[in-house]
Amino acid sequence: MTRTILPRSSRFPILPWRKFSSLTGPRSAARAISTATRDPRTKMRTWELDEQHLSKIRVNPTRLIDELHYTCQWGTGQRWGKADSETGMSRLALSDADKLARDWFVDTTKSLGCKISVDAMGNTFAIRPGREDGPPTCAGSHLDTQPSGGRYDGILGILAGVEMLKVLSENRVETAFPVGVVNWTNEEGARFPISMVSSGVWAGEIPLDRAHGLKEVGGGSHTMKSELERIGYLGSLPASYEAMPLAAHFELHIEQGPILETEKQKIGIVKGVQAYRWYTVEVDGQEAHTGTTPFNSRADALLAAARMICTSHTAAADHGALASTGILTLSPGSVNTIPGKVTFSLDIRAPTDHILDKLEEHLKSDFDFIVSTESTHGLGLAVSWQTDSVSPAIHFHDDCISTVRASANAILGDDKLSREMVSGAGHDSVYASRRCPTSMIFVPSRNGISHNPKEYTSPEDCAIGADVLLQSVLRYDRLRFARKV
Amino acid sequence: MTRTILPRSSRFPILPWRKFSSLTGPRSAARAISTATRDPRTKMRTWELDEQHLSKIRVNPTRLIDELHYTCQWGTGQRWGKADSETGMSRLALSDADKLARDWFVDTTKSLGCKISVDAMGNTFAIRPGREDGPPTCAGSHLDTQPSGGRYDGILGILAGVEMLKVLSENRVETAFPVGVVNWTNEEGARFPISMVSSGVWAGEIPLDRAHGLKEVGGGSHTMKSELERIGYLGSLPASYEAMPLAAHFELHIEQGPILETEKQKIGIVKGVQAYRWYTVEVDGQEAHTGTTPFNSRADALLAAARMICTSHTAAADHGALASTGILTLSPGSVNTIPGKVTFSLDIRAPTDHILDKLEEHLKSDFDFIVSTESTHGLGLAVSWQTDSVSPAIHFHDDCISTVRASANAILGDDKLSREMVSGAGHDSVYASRRCPTSMIFVPSRNGISHNPKEYTSPEDCAIGADVLLQSVLRYDRLRFARKV
């Protein structure tokens, strides 16, 4: 994903949610709510619950997981095990399967008393009214999957949001402000080739026209707009944080990595998204015959590239960062010809931009050293870098992070069972975080596998994550109430 | 090239040349020649020349290089400099351009008194009679080139042979036995995809039907046989060392490497062809997200492959061998996915089979170590080897090597200007050596470059090489005479 990054100071220029999260305010406003006429159908009000009662509001684990697998009837993918639910998913954005999953989302949330808004990108907001009007505190994620994806990436976040609405409904919980669930369109970028494109449009960072004009990959002629129209999800609401402000955004997601599983922990309290940079590195050498050219007369572009790849890992480890090469091409590509040119991708990631600055500097120097020492007899090797993508580190909002931490402690009862993390991958929460306070909740991924039919998170872990999501939304609602008073 | 290798003991089963190169024999036979009626048109007889006179028989350097460039009008390739001769060559075997070059070869050698024989593979033998009948001592190489080749690889060997015939003719030299020049078909394997295929058929190591049935690369429908017919070079002579025995084969060729140039030497006395083995190495790891997978949870097939490539070079250098990787493919090939599978070619070469045995053993152990140390958390990496080609070391015939050495000393006057070498590449001399005594003569290649339009050997170096070729053929003829007596 390539995108324009706003300077930090201008990220929240005129934000509707600010009036609700202001740290100071007249206490009289709170009093106005707490003494308002009570709706006799309401069983509990978030702002009145003590810690003990609040912590007891939990999801129904069986219903959550049954409903998750129920919705996987739309876009069922590759089978990997014998049980009914042991298949992957292949639910590309705006496909017929995606339309059916969306229809289920709309029907279910409507039946739970939500108002549905669909914007011009098909982002679908199911909002449950609170005691007061205002932007909703939302759980959000996505129902689309990779073509060879699993049942949890994105789907779990939406299903946990819907389960939250069911819990609020059956317990007749009244929130101070609206709460809701948002299904963002085409998060995967697997059908229309920009990831997180629709939260990006909502955040004002991707132009609507560009997004609408995206053609499906693989040479098809459908665009996002034509497919939104075809399946009936081209909404009349502008796709914009101004037209549909959010008070906060919480996203439950599988970790997609092995850390929680390895550390035997249950919840990742996601403080942000690591910085990453993508480069294309080109190494130019000299084609020569493998049989007739002694080592000291070679300028072997592949040997140099191999040394660079090894070095990038060592250096990244030294800096507490990651380095990866996923693409490598060479020419001319003949068994008995030494490659004259190699091009490879380099993906480096770290929790802070500063670490990446240092690592980039380190690698540029190391790669220069490699081409200088490989170079002999005037044949010469050369290396050049092209920067393809720069994504600065994202720091989620402290209020949301604290809310997730308090919720995890309330559910797990032991802070050793959770850990603070940064996300290695991008999510809709990246764009959401530019326009409203945001945090994420991670649950373990078996073997760290995702984007794969075998992606798996146990029902118990799904329920723990959904409990933390529910608690986070309720606690943030209480925070909004408290700060208003 | 993949081919069946005969066991060493059966290489020369019933060789026609043996009767001429026998080390013992009645002295009366020699006397029979030396006292035979002299042809009044003959100016000199090889067997009567003393060393001083023999060494003075030299090529005409200007005529050699002018004729070489003249023949490059057929199949002229890519221009790289301003002079008329500063282009490469693109003369694919059995093309229209190749036919014109062949016609020139036949017409020129006929006019020099040669008898022409074309065999079923289009191999063309131009034989100049000697005092006695018998298999000819031949200079041989090829007129076909790579699609993006140069003016010297193969061409120089044929042109130097033709120049030899001119020198013999204008000096009215009589040889004891026939001498000649052979143009082997499709040495490059660039149009019909087996290198040295026609010398291979002649040697009885590639079946005629397989060679005739070879289709041109790039999806064309022409076969070697149909193209031989079309251009009129499908000869009636069987393509066989039995139908057309050679007494010896000398091949002048550019080095295609940088050693002579680097060492400031003029002639390579080629003792043989190094052994080589080609493998396909497959590394299997685990696809994973580059952003969410810590180093200690990865099974990165590309990182392991990069370490193997680095190690193969270090180990080969330690063994006095070569190692090269010219092809590398990986999957799935996405910037942010760690490759789960990498396949790469490995080409190892050494002067002896024993060194390759040791190197192969060393690398298998090293690669196993690399996958075991990269492997963590039970994800595992695995490596597997497939052997694609085994070509044992070729040892040329001591008589021919000694003849080339004596010729180089006669021409250069200083044995520091020549060196014994093994060829890194395959040549028609490899197959010739299975059926008759053989050696090769190398001349410097500028920057070691070949299979490239810029391939270049100076006119002076071409002439030195042609002189050594001429001397070698004459000296071998004297050897045959001396041994017969």
TrEMBL record, chains A, B:
Gene Ontology molecular functions: hydrolase activity, acting on carbon-nitrogen (but not peptide) bonds, in linear amidines
Family annotation (InterPro entries): Amidase_Cbmase, Bact_exopeptidase_dim_dom, Peptidase_M20, Peptidase_M20_dimer
Residue ranges occupied by any Peptidase M20 dimerisation domain in the UniProt entry: 277-365
Pfam families, sorted: M20_dimer, Peptidase_M20
UniProt keyword annotations, A-Z: Hydrolase
Family: Belongs to the peptidase M20A family.
Protein name, per record: Peptidase M20 dimerisation domain-containing protein
